[in-house]
């Protein structure tokens, strides 16, 4: 089947470059944290804040201090397309290394709520990454990003593993979950493979830390109260900030 996603024009320049839409005269620190926990981002104490433009309205990017270093912090929306737009704009404003931190669904029962997962690779079941990298089933994460997160986690229990990145949160069928587990995926998310692809395309460093949240490991979906685990979410954000300073 001749799918548009398989068209090979990756080497050609885009008609719209992110430099053309970011605010003029604004620069950001070289390091950033893409935090998918909105309540955590809302609670930061910024040194300054700049705003990106979008159809969602002005979108804040906070600059915070972490151990004397400045780090840009943004909540990059939900899903691969939107998070990639904001990631691209951060890179256009000077970011050269980023750590993403967010939630994921557990595919295996041993990952209880709050368990930390360092993305070692991602299965590409989304559309955005195919506009940045040649077609392929799995994309490997940046080894430097993995190392930075493992160092920042220290004694915090974690696994380095594969995630299944999908666009269709309401089409995660039992048979598809079983196939993904057979391919060594332990969690499912909506952004990882696309962010890895952008980082590789733009030659910037990236690490991705996931929080095991709801569960698809049983016969029925379980929420498990993962959005209310405020302390764990805040702690993982702090770990992501520490990793950003050494990435």
Automatic annotation (TrEMBL):
Enzyme's top EC category: transferase
Domain Nucleoside phosphorylase: 31-224
Protein name: Uridine phosphorylase
EC number per UniProt: 2.4.2.3
A single Gene Ontology CC term: cytosol
Sequence intervals crossing the membrane: none
Coiled coil: none
One function term, GO molecular function aspect: uridine phosphorylase activity
A GO biological process held by the record: purine nucleoside catabolic process
Recorded catalytic activity of this chain's protein: uridine + phosphate = alpha-D-ribose 1-phosphate + uracil
């Amino acid at each position: 089947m001749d799918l548009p996603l398989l068209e090979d024009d990756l080497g050609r320049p885009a008609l719209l470059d992110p430099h053309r839409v970011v605010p003029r005269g604004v620069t950001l620190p070289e390091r950033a944290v893409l935090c998918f926990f909105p309540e955590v981002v809302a609670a930061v104490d910024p040194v300054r804040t700049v705003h990106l433009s979008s159809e969602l309205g002005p979108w804040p990017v906070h600059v915070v201090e972490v151990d004397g270093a400045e780090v840009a912090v943004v909540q990059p929306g939900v899903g691969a397309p939107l998070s990639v737009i904001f990631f691209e704009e951060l890179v256009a404003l000077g970011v050269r290394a980023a750590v993403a931190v967010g939630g994921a669904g557990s595919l295996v029962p041993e990952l209880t709520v709050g368990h930390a997962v360092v993305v070692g690779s991602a299965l590409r079941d989304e559309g955005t990454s195919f506009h940045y990298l040649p077609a392929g089933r799995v994309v490997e994460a940046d080894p430097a990003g993995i190392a930075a997160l493992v160092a920042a986690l220290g004694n915090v229990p974690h696994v380095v593993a594969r995630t299944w990145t999908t666009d269709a949160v309401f089409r995660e069928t039992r048979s598809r979950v079983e196939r993904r587990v057979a391919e060594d995926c332990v969690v499912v998310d909506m952004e990882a493979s696309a962010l890895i692809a952008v980082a590789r395309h733009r030659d910037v460093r990236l690490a991705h830390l996931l929080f095991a949240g709801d569960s698809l490991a049983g016969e029925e979906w379980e929420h498990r109260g993962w959005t209310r685990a405020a302390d764990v979410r805040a702690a993982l954000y702090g770990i992501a900030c520490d990793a950003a300073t050494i990435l």
